[in-house]
Design goal:
Number of strands: 0
Number of domains: 1
Distance between the termini: 15 Å
Transmembrane segments: 6-25, 46-69
Number of helices: 2
Shape: rod-shaped
Helix content: over 70%
Order of helices and strands: HH
Strand content: under 5%
Keywords: Membrane, Transmembrane, Transmembrane helix
Structural class: mainly alpha
Largest sheet: none
Length: 71
């Protein structure tokens, strides 16, 4: 696989990874909030969680591309 294709796939992977894990954690928070009377995650906290997962996914993609092509 060439480097531009790897970068393109990485760009596609980042939002998928971020939305998937943010959705899973928000779903788990909503489930626990109903059961144990916790406050439900606000939209602001969800956006911060989405940003954090996006940054982590970016680090994963950069690390994978570095290990594959530059080592």
């Amino acid at each position: 696989m060439s480097l531009p294709i790897a970068i393109t796939l990485g760009i596609i992977f980042i939002p998928i990874y971020a939305y998937f894990w943010s959705f899973i954690l928000r779903w788990d928070n909503s489930r626990r909030a109903r059961r144990y009377d916790f406050p439900i995650m606000s939209k602001r906290k969800y956006n911060y969680l989405l940003l954090a997962h996006g940054i982590f996914a970016t680090i994963l993609v950069i690390g994978a591309i570095y290990m594959s092509y530059f080592k």
